[in-house]
Structure to design on (429 residues):
């Protein structure tokens, strides 16, 4: 894609956007046909995805625009029901773009598997024996999934921990074997679980214990992606607020979240506002990404901010977000869900590592959008104006009524369903 700057996209009709994106060759006529069809995910396909299917549930799909990441342009598909998220991400991406864009990095895609062993006659000895067999165990894990090795991945490391070794309760004493495997472009849950199950009998034999759980950990601390942006204060200036005031407000807001779990929870929810929609649109497991992100935010013993905001020696605002990112470009439902397939095409990423970097970037952008609004006008001004259309629809407005009523709600500064119902009644008279 040449650029993700598409001025005026916001004001186009859906049909105009469809024609524009087709002319930009972001998707073909045929792909546009099913994206814009009534049933983009056929019930028959859905019935093969999960159990007890009775239909499908749709979410709006929007495009986060203006993203420049490591010098490459991205239009980012976002599946979300909440107004203002896509607008805010695109607004911040435009602002950061003017400052040179985002820079990102990522570790190898190394996921973690856990094997729980209980009832060992001697836990310390069992630990030593397992560690001595590390290479053989890694080989056994790789034999359970040889295709990964061919792709340059596979099991790479193993650690052992004893939990509650001094406890008098036999239920709480356990040996935990952690193994780490590079799952390449797959999220890796099934791959890791297959490896864990294949190692279990060998580990039982080595430890003289009994294996109960053998499963992926959703906190993949060795599968991290990081995004960074540096913004000069001039770029942050808004009506009534100098760039320095906005910058300082953002840093104060961050410090609040860094020190207070009650604020951190909301702060991080805002970050996930950007992350989840991309994870969902790309057919990935958003529960896994959510769980990993929150575990990471509590890794030092206190739940805290996922992002870090500071001022550099030139007075620029510097933002960073590093999170575990268990996403894939293959596997799971990614190649099954037609819209997820199209989302990958629109995103144009070559690997799961690249996808992970795009996703943390949008989380960082979303966080800045929220902090910038909070540090200036407050969140409600922009959010409620965009929310007004949903309020109008909830009150029964249809067709041209939606715009008229949403406009009246904004003008009268009363964006509530009760007020919208009164206006719908008035319109019908
Ligand atoms: P899959 O089981 O679909 O495995 C990915 C498959 O993709 C591999 O079998 C591999 O097959 C193939 N593949 C093709 N190209 C590549 C490549 N470049 N890199 C890696 N693999 C490639 O998916 P995952 O193991 O990723 O599991 C993800 C699913 O598991 C998600 O749906 C998730 O919801 C679910 N899940 C999540 C759990 C959790 O989070 N705790 C627990 C259990 C399941 P081959 O090598 O044969 O070509």
């Amino acid at each position: 894609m040449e650029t993700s700057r598409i001025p005026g996209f916001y004001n186009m009709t859906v049909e105009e956007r469809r024609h524009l994106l087709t002319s930009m060759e972001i998707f073909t006529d045929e792909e546009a046909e099913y994206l814009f069809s009534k049933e983009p995910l056929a019930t028959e396909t859905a019935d093969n995805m999960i159990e007890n299917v009775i239909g499908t549930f749709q979410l709006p799909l929007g495009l986060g625009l203006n993203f420049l990441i490591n010098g490459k342009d991205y239009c980012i598909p976002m599946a979300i029901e909440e107004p203002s998220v896509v607008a805010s991400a695109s607004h911040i991406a435009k602002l950061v773009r003017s400052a040179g864009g985002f820079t990102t990095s990522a570790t190898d895609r190394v996921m973690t598997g856990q094997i729980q062993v209980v009832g060992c006659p001697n836990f310390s000895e069992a630990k030593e024996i397992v560690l001595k067999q590390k290479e053989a165990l890694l080989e056994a894990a790789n034999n359970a999934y040889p295709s990964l090795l061919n792709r340059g991945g596979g099991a790479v490391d193993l650690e052992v921990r004893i939990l509650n070794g001094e406890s008098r309760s036999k239920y709480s004493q356990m040996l935990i074997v952690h193994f780490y495997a590079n799952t390449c472009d797959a999220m890796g849950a099934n791959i890791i679980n297959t490896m864990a199950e294949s190692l279990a009998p060998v580990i039982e034999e080595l430890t003289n214990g009994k294996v109960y759980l053998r499963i992926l950990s959703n906190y993949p601390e060795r599968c991290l992606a990081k995004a960074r942006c540096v913004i000069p204060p001039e770029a942050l200036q808004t009506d009534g607020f100098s760039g320095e005031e906005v910058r300082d407000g953002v840093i104060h807001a961050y410090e609040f979240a860094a020190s207070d779990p009650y604020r951190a929870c909301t702060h991080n929810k805002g970050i996930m506002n950007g992350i989840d929609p991309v994870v969902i649109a790309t057919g990935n497991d958003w529960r896994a990404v959510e769980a990993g992100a929150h575990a990471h935010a509590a890794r030092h013993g206190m739940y805290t901010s996922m992002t870090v905001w500071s001022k550099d020696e030139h007075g620029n605002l510097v933002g960073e977000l590093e999170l575990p990112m268990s996403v894939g470009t293959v596997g799971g439902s990614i190649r099954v869900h037609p819209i997820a397939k199209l989302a990958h095409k629109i995103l144009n990423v070559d690997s799961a590592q690249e996808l992970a970097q795009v996703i943390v970037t949008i989380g960082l952008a979303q966080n800045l959008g929220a902090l910038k609004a909070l540090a200036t006008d407050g969140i409600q001004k922009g959010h409620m104006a965009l929310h007004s259309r949903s309020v109008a629809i909830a009150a029964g407005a249809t067709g041209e009524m939606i715009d008229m009523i949403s406009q009246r709600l904004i003008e009268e500064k009363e964006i509530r369903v009760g007020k919208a119902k009164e206006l719908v009644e008035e319109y019908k008279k």
Observations:
- Residues 343 and 376 are 34 Å apart (CA to CA).
- The mean pLDDT is 94.
- The pocket of NDP is lined by residues 147, 151, 183-191, 193, 216, 218, 285, 288, 328, 330-333 (CB under 6 Å).
